[in-house]
Amino acid sequence: MKYCFGVDIGGTTVKMGLFESEGKILDKWEITTDTSREGQAILPDIAASIEKKTEEHHLSREDILGVGVGVPAPVTSAGIVNGSANLGWKYKEVKREMEELTGFRAEIGNDANVAALGEMWKGGGAGRKNIVMVTLGTGVGGGVIIDGKILVGQNGAGGEIGHLCVNYEETDTCGCGNRGCLEQYASATGIVRLAKKKLGEELRPTTLKKEDITAKAVFDAVKAGDETAREIAVEFGKYLGYALANIAVVTDPDAFVIGGGVSKAGEVLIPFIREPYMEKAFFANKKVDFVLATLGNDAGICGAAKLVLDA
Ligand SMILES: [Zn+2]
Fold first, then answer.
1. What is the CATH number for 12?
2. Once rounded to an integer, what is the mean pLDDT over residues 121-139?
3. Of 241, 251, 252, whose CA–CA distance to 280 is shortest?
């Protein structure tokens, strides 16, 4: 039996998993992300944890195929990161450092791209080779898998769907510095922004309260039949559905996999996205499925392990 490690580095914790090469998760654990001193302890901490687990499970080093790592930043195909705000990293040769620290082969990818690979392997996109994953969290993350491989691009920024411009007239600024990014409308914070605007001009009775509005509250109210909430969801769905129709003419996916905190609303979400998608999609892109992600927080470690298994 061969094994590999899947590592998902986040701003507060590093999620880690030990996998059999067939895909079974043998062990799963977390360590704290030490972002002090420009995050210089992060990779050594991961290497030490891998060393410890290798001993704990009595694995022989020859049976370990390698370590896959997802990083919250664009990662080039050479495994280089040119700065990660969440980790405090500047230029970092992550692949080389990880290989030197562990003595194992290392494969590095952007966290959202890696999560998409995980969902294709064992999650909502299982059995497919061409998927686009959209992660609706605080921001909007994305990952494009074409023929089973991550679309990395020249700068490691392939699949950054959240920064597709969907409103050329927007005056508010996105976290990236541009204006009108999809993330400003379709993330959890984007939905709150849409809701606040709507509630500011709403005259009809609604169960939604402007002061403590959340994306979850909006979709809970949709389920309860609140008309104002439904209209907010329609607006959200138009931004996202139209954007996905544009993405489809480039990527031609078999399925869109919807994940992230907002997707916890469940199946209620799907028609709000699918309807506007169908309205704008190129005819040949209409035969596509919309599915929910199923791996939750494990998508990252699964995809990271798959990076190594595919290498
Ligand atoms: Zn942006």
1. 3.30.420.40
2. 95
3. 241
